[in-house]
């Protein structure tokens, strides 16, 4: 009987919560286990912390749970040698000097570093802006240099990682299509539902197209914006009809099916070029027609007019015309949505990409075994 292969996942967030984890390596846990790996997941942020993390205030609780997170990481250091591979997602600890990253790389037998978004640019949520100066950008560079293998999710991230490490692979954000039922009814009720699903940090992109909704109001279009998020949200213009639903994994598919069109607006900024677009992939998985900004990885994901519509940055008039075009054309909504689902199945599904993850893990493990022989 072969010896079990053991992986310790050091990640920021609890399992099945954050898109950067859910739509990346977490979906492959079953495949890893079927390949003989034993998994242990150690999030820095526990669920009580997650529930307040992106809410304004709660500073005493946030400090308390941050201290708890550091004690968890100290415990991880004491048990790290039990594992063949340590899989680090984003960072080991969120703040300050890269001491814990150094200790992990020193003690771990092998390290795989999973990088998502342009986190080296520095980023903080609106609710936690006062802590932005404490975030250590050097952590990311250190992990890139020391990891035995680096996994990215976009070409821009891959190019950046290759400046520090020769062992880099780009595996796109993906969807387990078996968990998402294809939309069957493309008829629009009286009110067209324009859907947006995204975390706290992405809501600014929805606000960037607020003038689009104002134009729709002026034209008398009957619509509402359905926002699914882990945060509160409102437009500056309170006349824009908006429904905000708090995201949960249990309700996610039901809420996606309530949408008639999926919206994926972006602005032209460096952070955007590291985004693979998990929310767009969710829309695609259920067969929604999608309108997205023509920037970054969207240019690789979508073929304009085939599996979605691409809009030049800042072209609000084009957003308006495409929304109205979809409202008036049932067959177009259906064809774009079905082609989007087909794209997911062929390029961005777990089934299409699982072998890449397994190749990385087994290659790193094989290298470890050869060193010890």
List the helices and strands and how they pair.
Blueprint: E1 5-11, H1 19-22, H2 29-34, E2 37-43, H3 47-53, H4 59-79, E3 85-89, H5 99-107, E4 111-114, H6 138-146, E5 149-152, H7 155-161, E6 168-170, E7 192-197, H8 203-207, H9 210-218, E8 223-229, E9 242-246, H10 249-257, E10 261-264, H11 278-285, E11 290-293, H12 298-301, E12 309-311, H13 316-327, H14 330-347, H15 350-372
Parallel strand pairs: 1-2, 1-3, 3-4, 4-5, 5-6, 7-8, 7-10, 8-9, 10-11, 11-12
In terms of quaternary structure, what is this? Answer: single chain
Query: What is the structural class?
Result: alpha/beta
The number of helices is 15
Q: How would you write the strand order of the largest sheet?
A: 2-1-3-4-5-6
- Average the pLDDT over all residues and give the rounded result: 90
Write down the Rg.
Answer: 21 Å
Portion of residues within helices? 40-55%
Beta-strand segment tally: 12
SSE series: EHHEHHEHEHEHEEHHEEHEHEHEHHH
Q: Kindly estimate the percentage of residues that lie in beta strands according to DSSP.
A: 15-25%
């Amino acid at each position: 009987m072969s010896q079990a292969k053991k992986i310790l996942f050091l990640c920021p967030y609890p399992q099945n919560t954050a898109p950067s984890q859910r739509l990346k390596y977490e979906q492959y846990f079953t495949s890893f286990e079927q390949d003989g790996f034993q998994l242990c997941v150690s999030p820095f942020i526990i669920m009580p912390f997650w529930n307040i993390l992106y809410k304004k205030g709660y500073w005493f609780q946030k400090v308390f749970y941050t201290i708890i997170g550091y004690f968890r990481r100290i415990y991880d250091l004491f048990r790290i040698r039990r594992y063949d591979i340590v899989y680090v997602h984003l960072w080991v600890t969120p703040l300050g000097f890269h001491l814990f990253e150094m200790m992990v790389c020193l003690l771990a037998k092998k390290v795989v570093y999973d990088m998502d978004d342009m986190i080296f640019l520095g980023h903080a949520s609106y609710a936690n802006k006062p802590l932005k100066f404490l975030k250590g950008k050097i952590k990311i560079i250190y992990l890139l240099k020391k990891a035995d293998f680096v996994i990215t999710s976009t070409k821009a991230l891959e190019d950046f990682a290759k400046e520090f490490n020769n062992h880099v692979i780009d595996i796109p954000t993906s969807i387990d299509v078996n968990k998402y039922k294809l939309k069957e009814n493309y008829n629009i009720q009286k009110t067209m539902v324009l859907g947006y699903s995204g975390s706290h940090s992405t809501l600014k992109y929805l606000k960037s197209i607020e003038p689009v909704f104002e134009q729709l109001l002026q034209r008398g279009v009957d619509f509402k914006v359905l926002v699914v998020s882990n945060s509160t949200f409102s437009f500056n213009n309170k006349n824009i009809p908006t429904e905000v639903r708090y995201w949960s994994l249990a309700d996610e598919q039901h809420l996606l099916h309530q949408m008639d069109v999926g919206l994926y607006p972006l602005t032209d900024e460096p952070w955007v070029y590291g985004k693979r677009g998990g929310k767009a992939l969710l829309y695609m998985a259920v067969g929604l027609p999608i309108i997205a900004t023509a920037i970054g990885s969207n240019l690789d994901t979508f073929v304009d007019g085939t599996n979605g519509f691409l809009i030049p940055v800042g072209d609000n008039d084009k957003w308006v015309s495409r929304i109205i075009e979809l409202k008036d054309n049932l067959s177009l909504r259906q064809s774009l949505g079905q082609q989007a689902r087909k794209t997911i199945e062929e390029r961005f599904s777990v089934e299409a990409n699982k072998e890449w993850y397994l190749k990385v893990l087994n290659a790193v493990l094989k290298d470890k075994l050869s060193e010890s022989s």
